Amino acid sequence: MITSVLFDLDGTLIDSWRLYMEAYTRTFEECYGRPFDRSETLELLGRRPRSETWLLRNLLGAEAQLDAFELFLSQYRSLHQSHFDGPYDGILDMLRELRTHRYVLGIVTGKSREAWAITETQAGLVPFDAVVTESDIATPKPDPEGLLKAVSLLGREIGETLYIGDSLLDAEAARAIGMTFWAAVWPKGPEEKASFAASVLAMGAARLLDSPSEIVQALRLGSADAVTNR
């Protein structure tokens, strides 16, 4: 029986795409010393960025990564109010309902602890029982280290934990340890839904979710009326 639910953050619970695009674009412009357009930034972000520091380190090298990360955080902070689009529709209601039914909740994200601290104060999400960021682990997704750490922090077992995310990296991480994975399809545009669905199902996703409200309904159909919070 599922007693705990872990979520990816960006692209699953919150819409931070415009924020990241602009923060990275401005960071790249500073680091490379020239203007960057959207297509260039998209190309760099398309290299399956596992986490903020992982991306910057692989693009700029280890020596330049620390300065680039501080620059990125500065941009992320200054742009947050104007470019952060908040939780997706239905997320807050879904989280509150999971709380009502006494599910234990956690986040496993490639976001840094520093960026999470900025977003946490403005996103309006419910408190989580565990938040594992890229700053808390040695190897980001698709390595399952973050999921294992979250399960340990929550005092749960893999078999009673569900992970919900919007990327193939999320699916890979869950599959690596045999954790149930449900794919969040609600952030996907019409042009990418079909290919994403096919890919993530091939990787073992147990369910495709078109809206956050489906999460509570599916869990309730598959478990008792309430979960005992141990």
TrEMBL record:
<dbReference type="InterPro" id="IPR041492">
    <property type="entry name" value="HAD_2"/>
</dbReference>
<dbReference type="Pfam" id="PF13419">
    <property type="entry name" value="HAD_2"/>
</dbReference>
<dbReference type="GO" id="GO:0008967">
    <property type="term" value="F:phosphoglycolate phosphatase activity"/>
</dbReference>
<protein>
    <recommendedName>
        <fullName>phosphoglycolate phosphatase</fullName>
        <ecNumber>3.1.3.18</ecNumber>
    </recommendedName>
</protein>
<comment type="similarity">
    <text>Belongs to the HAD-like hydrolase superfamily. CbbY/CbbZ/Gph/YieH family.</text>
</comment>
<dbReference type="InterPro" id="IPR006439">
    <property type="entry name" value="HAD-SF_hydro_IA"/>
</dbReference>
<dbReference type="InterPro" id="IPR050155">
    <property type="entry name" value="HAD-like_hydrolase_sf"/>
</dbReference>
<dbReference type="InterPro" id="IPR036412">
    <property type="entry name" value="HAD-like_sf"/>
</dbReference>
<dbReference type="GO" id="GO:0005829">
    <property type="term" value="C:cytosol"/>
</dbReference>
<dbReference type="InterPro" id="IPR023198">
    <property type="entry name" value="PGP-like_dom2"/>
</dbReference>
<dbReference type="GO" id="GO:0006281">
    <property type="term" value="P:DNA repair"/>
</dbReference>
<comment type="pathway">
    <text>Organic acid metabolism; glycolate biosynthesis; glycolate from 2-phosphoglycolate: step 1/1.</text>
</comment>
<dbReference type="InterPro" id="IPR023214">
    <property type="entry name" value="HAD_sf"/>
</dbReference>
